[in-house]
Amino acid sequence: MVDQLSPLEPVWRPGSHGNFAAGVGVILSETQPGSIVQATAWPGEEKALMGAIRTVAGIVLPDGAGGGVFTEEKAAFGFAPGKFLVVDQAEGLFATLSAAITSETGTVTDLSHGRTAIRFAGPKAEWVLAKFFAIDFSLAAFPVGAGRSTVHHDIFAQIQRTGASQFDLYVFRSFARAFWNALCHASEEVGYEVR
Amino acid sequence: MSPRRSQTGGRVDRTRTIRFTFDGRPFTGHAGDTLASALLANGVTLFGRSFKYHRPRGVLTAGVDEPNALVTVLHGEVREPNIPATMLEIYDGLTVVSQNRFPTLAFDFGAANQLGGKLLGAGFYYKTFMGPVFGPLKGTRFWMFCEYFIRRAAGLGRAGIARDPARYERMNAFCDVLVVGSGPAGLVAAKATADNGARVILAELEPKFGGSANWSDETIDGMAAAEWASTMVRDLKARDNVRLLPRTTVWGYYDDNNMAALERVTDHKSAPGKGEPRHRHWSIWAGSVVLATGAFERPLVFPGNDRPGVMLASAAERYANEFGILPGQKVALFVNNDAAYRAASTLRKAGAEITAIVDARDEISAAAQEIAEGAGGELLRGHAVVATEGGKHVSGIKVQKFDLANGALSGEARHLDADCLLVSGGWSPVIHLASQAGLKPEWNETLQAFLPPKPTQNWVGAGAFNGRFTTAEALAEGVAAGLSAAGSIGRAEYAPEVEAPVLDPHPAPVFEIRAKGKAFVDLQHDVTADDVRLAYKEGFVSVEHLKRYTTLGMATDQGKTSNVPGIAIMADAQGRPISDVGTTRFRPPFAPVSLGALAAERYGEVKPERLTPMHDWHVENGATMYAAGLWHRPAIYGLAGETVEQAYVREAKTTREAAGIVDVSTLGKIAVQGPDAADFLDRVYTNMFSTLAVGKARYGLMLREDGIALDDGTTWRLGNDDFLMTTTTANAGKVMQHLEYLLDVVWPELKVQLTSVTDQWAGAAIAGPKAREILASCVTGTAVDNDTLPFMGIVHGEIAGAPVMICRLSFSGEMAFEVYSGAGHGVHVWEALIEAGKPYGMVCYGLEALGTMRIEKGHVTGAEIDGRTTARDLGLDWMLSKKKPFVGSMMMDREGLADVDRVRLVGVIALDNRPLNGGAHIVEDNEAAPRNSIGHITAVCYSPMLGKYIGLALVKGGKKRHGARAFVSDPLRNRFGPVEIVSNHFFDPEGKRMHG
Amino acid sequence: MLINCPYCGPRDLSEFSYQGDGNRTRPDPASTDQAEWNAYVYDRTNIAGDHNEIWQHAGGCRAHLRLTRNTLTHKITSVSFARDERHKKPHGHRRSGAHS
C-alpha cells in the first residue's frame, strides 16, 4: 500500500518555536489516521447507525448533540444532526462501515484523504484556539470527547476535544497547510512545539 | 512657574528612570508615568496646537477623556497620530512628536488663524465651499483650489504611509459576567460575581486596576484606597474563574451582549515579546454585563478656558496623588460644586499654594467652607472666571461677580495670580455603552447630568455610572450589581467601610460664563460657545444637527468633555430645558480603535491559500501559479525564454499532437448518496440522471430557480445510490449551498446525503491522441481500451500501487481521461503518469492551455455562465429535458428569456490577426466609441489549431450572425478591429477526436 | 448576534448565512402556473417586526434553520430545524391576482 503524503510536509518543522523560553504553551502534531469516515443516519435511524459504529469500531457513542468518544486508536463524534465522524488509526474503516450500514440506515463517505487531522494540545490550547473560532472552549462548555463544527473565515473545522487540554481538529486537506501556518503563527506568543 | 515632580508622594517608581523624546528633545520619567505626567514633571505644559486656530494647548485631564494633549507616536517609519498623552505609558525609547504645528510647537505660523476667527466659525466649510459657483471664490471649484492649504493648516495628526509591521489579533471570549471598569464599584462587582462561582472578565482601560481608588486619598476597609484596590486585585487574580484585562477598552455593545474591546497589549513596551500582538481585538459574549464605567468631570466654558495650565480639578488630584506631580505652584480653582474642593486640600497638602477658590455659587456647604479655609487663599463666592492671562501658559486669571440666577456679570474685573487653574463643572456619568444598549438617556436635574437609559440588553450599572458619585455608594451598588449579574439573590457578604470627606457632588446649573473672548466647548475641534449659538440662529434645532453642523463632539475624543456643556448652551439659546433638548446617541467606538485590530489576523494575509495535492510538484517543475479564488493553480509551465503565449500554445499544441496532463483537483466534488439520490439529481439537473448506468458519467447542467444557468459539470454514478458530482472550481460552494437548501427546506422527505469530497480526490486529466497508450502503460487491474472504458465510462484500477478511478471524459476535445486518486496519493500517481508519458512526449499544461483548448471546442465556463445567461443562450438547449420538471424549468421559458435577440454564445475570430481581450464589446460599426454594443467577448486565446486569435462571445442573435463581420471595440485598452462571428465550435465540431 | 442552533447551541452570526424569507412555499414541481412560480421566485415579505426567516448554519452543522426574528430589535424568539417543519403558510404576495 502506498503511504499518504501529508500536505504539511514542507512546513513541518519539528522542535520548539516562538516564545518557548519558559516552556511551550502548546504542542502541535498531525495524527495521520488511516481512516476518516463520515457516517450519516436518515432521521430516526441514528440509534441504528450508532449501533453499527459500535459493532464495527467497538466504540460506544453517547447520546446527544455533539457527543463523542475517544481512545488513542479510535474516535467518533457527532458534528451535525445524524452525522458522525469516525476515525481509526488503521486503514480500512470505510469498507467495514460501508458493509455494516445499509442504505435504509444511512450513508458512509470516505474522507481519509480529504481531511487533515491536527492535534493541538497543551495548557494554552484553549487560549490559542479562541483566536480562531468563536466557540466556547472551556471544559464545562466543551467536554472531553465532544465534537463541534465551526469555521475560521473560509476554513471549516470539525473539532473533537480529546483531553482536558487537547483538541483534534479535522480540516479540509487543501486548507491544511494554510491553517497549520496560521496555528503556528498564533502559537508563537505562548511558545509551541511541533512533534 | 511650572509644574514639577514632588520629592515624595504618588505611585510612580522613582527608582526606575525611563528615557524618551518629545519633538526630538530627550526627557526622563519614571515607571508608572504617562507621557502627560512625565512631561508635566519636566515642566512641559505646551503639548500641541489646536485644530482650527492653532492655539497653544496643554493637558486638561488625566485619562481617556483628554481632548487637548494629542501626540503622534513614531515607531521607526510608522507613525500613529492622535494618541492622548494621558493614555500613553512611557517606555525606554518612546519617540513622540507634537501635532498641527509649523514650523515648531512654540512658534507656529498657523496661530494667525486666530485673527480670522470669525471666518472659521460654525459651518465655514458649508458656507464657503458648497453650492453653485458664483464668481471665482465660491463653490466646490474654490474648495478644490483651497483644499491643499486648508488640509495643511487644519486638522489633527498626520497618518503615515509606512507599512505597520506590528501583529494584531482577534480573541473570542465567553463569560457569565463582564465587568467594565475597575474602580471601587467594578472591583467589588467582580468579587461578588466571582464569589458566586460565575466566570468573570474584568476589563479596565487603564494599566492599573482601581480607578479613583488609586488617587482619591480615601480610606476603604481601614486601608488607603489604593492599597485596598491592590488587595482586591490580588484576590481576583488568584481565582481561576476571573480573567483580568488591563489596558482594555470596551468600546462597543452589540446584539446579545456581544462586547467589542481593544486590548493594548504591547503599546507600553519598548519591544513586544516574541509573537506578542500589539493590539488584541476581544469579542466577548457575556451572559450579563456590569457597567461600572464611572464618570467624567466636566470643564466650565469661559473665555481663555483652553490655555495651558487650565486643568480639571480631579485630574490635578490624580496627578498629585498618583503621579506625585504638582500641576502648578500657585493654584486657583473655578468650580460650581462642593466635591471639587477636595482638590484644593489635596494640592495644598502636596505643597502648592492655593491662591483663590472662585465659586459660581453664593451658597456652599460648611464642609466646603472648612476645606477652603484650611487650604488658604481667597474664597470668592458668587464669582466667575472671565478670562485667563498669559501666553502659552496661564499666568493669572480675571474674575468678576457672577449672578447664578441669570448668568450676569457685574463689577470690575479683578486680576488674581495663578499658574494653574483647576476647573470643575460637575460630573457626567460615562453612559456610552449603555446608550448603545438602551433607550434614551435621561436628564437628571439634581445631578445636572444624563443618567443611563433603561436597558434593552442584559446589563446592570453601578456607582458613578449611575450618578452615585461617592465611594460608599459605589461600593454598595457594585456589590448589588455583581450579585444581580451573577443571577444570585443572596446577600452581599462583603460590605467595605469608607472614610472620606462628605462633599456634595451636585453642581449648580452653570455651564458657561458669557464674557468677551473665545470660550471653547469642544477643545479638540475648536468649537466655541458662539459657534453653538450661531448654529441655533441658523436654524439648527436638533441636537444631532447641531453636532454635525458645528462638528461638536465629532473629534477623536467624541465629545467626552464637551457633550453636556454644548447641549446646555444649545438649550439655553433655545430657551428650553436640557431634558427637552436631549443628547446625541453615543455610538461605537467609545475610544479610537486601531484598524489593524479589527482586521486582526487578516491583516497582511487576506485569504488562506488552498492548495492541490500536487501543488509543490508544480512549483518545483517550473509552473507559474495563478490564484483562482482561494485556489492556486498552474497557469503555464514555461520554458526558459518563453512568453506566456508561447508557453500555452506549445502546451496546447503538444497535447493535441501527442498528450498533455493537467491538475484538475480543484474541481468541486460532492458525494450525492442515498436511495433518492437519482431522483434528486433529476430534479436539480436539466437532464436525466436516473437513467444513467452505474459505472458511467454524464454531463449535467443546473439552473437557478429563476431559469438562469447556475453551473455545469459531470456526475458519475459509482453505485446505485452513490453519485460523485463535479462542479466548476469557482461554483463548488454555491452549488453545495443550493442543493442543501433544496434538501433541507424544500424536499426534506428525500433521503439524500451531500458531502463535500473535493479534497478527498486528486484529479489528473490526461488528454491527447497518445493518452490511452500512456494510461495503458501504467494502469494495472483494469484495461482502458474502448470496450472496457468507452466514452463517459468509469473503471477502477491502480497506478504504481495506488488505487485510482478513471473516467473517460474530455474537456479539451481530445481523447481524454480523468484519473482520480486519494489526495494523499496524488503526487505519487501524478509522478507515475508523468513518467509513463515521457516516451510519448507528454507535456504538463496549465490553465492557459486548458482555456485555449476549451475555447477551441466552444465549451462554456464561468465567464459564460455569468448569472445572466440561460441554457438556450449558451447553446445548451439539447440538455433541457422535456420529460420532467426540474429546478428552473418553469421560469426558463419566460418571454424575456426566450427572446431570440438575447445575447447568445458565438465564436469570434480576429481578422486583423491581433490578440483579443475578454470584456471587449462587439459592435456593428467600426467606431472608436462603443456605441450600439451587440455583445461582449468572454474568453480569448491564440488558437494553435486555427493559427488565429479567437474568442468566445455573447452576441445578440447568436447563431443568426454566424459568418457575419463585426468589430471589436475596447477603448480602455485601445483595441479596435474587425472580427468574424462564427460558431463557438471552432475545432473538431463532430467530436471525432475524443470519441476516437 | 447569537443564533441558538438546535444542534450546535448558541453561535455567532458570522457562522450563519441568511437564506431568505421563510414565508415562501415552492409550488408543486409539476405546476405550470407562471404567477405562482413568479411569486415563489421573486416575492418577498418585508416585515418590520417578527419575521419568519431561513438561515443556514453554514459555518457549523450546515443545517437550515427556521427563525422568528424581529427585524427591528434582532430578538430571536424561536429557532427550529427547517426540515422538521412544513410551514404551509400562505405566501405573502405583493401583486394582486397572484395565486396563493
Automatic annotation (TrEMBL), chain A:
GCVT N-terminal domain ranges (all copies): 83-192
Superkingdom as given in the UniProt entry: Bacteria
GO molecular function, one term: sarcosine oxidase activity
Organism: Mesorhizobium alhagi CCNWXJ12-2
GO BP term, example: sarcosine catabolic process
The name this protein goes by in its record: Sarcosine oxidase subunit gamma family protein
Classification via Pfam families: GCV_T
UniProtKB/TrEMBL annotation, chain B:
CC annotations in GO: cytosol
UniProt entry tagged with the keyword Oxidoreductase: yes
Start and end residues of each SoxA A3 domain: 516-601
Alphabetical list of Pfam families matching this protein: Fer2_4, GCV_T, GCV_T_C, Pyr_redox_2, SO_alpha_A3
Gene Ontology terms, MF aspect: sarcosine oxidase activity
Stated family: Belongs to the GcvT family.
Name assigned to this protein: Sarcosine oxidase subunit alpha family protein
Organism whose genome encodes this protein: Mesorhizobium alhagi CCNWXJ12-2
Lineage summary: Bacteria, Pseudomonadati, Pseudomonadota, Alphaproteobacteria, Hyphomicrobiales
TrEMBL record, chain C:
GO biological process, one term: tetrahydrofolate metabolic process
GO MF term list: sarcosine oxidase activity
Highest taxon, organism lineage: Bacteria
Entry-linked InterPro entries: SoxD, SoxD_sf
Residue ranges, annotated region (Disordered): 79-100
Stretches with biased composition (Basic residues): 88-100
Family annotation (Pfam families): SoxD (PF04267)
The protein's name: Sarcosine oxidase subunit delta family protein
Protein source organism: Mesorhizobium alhagi CCNWXJ12-2
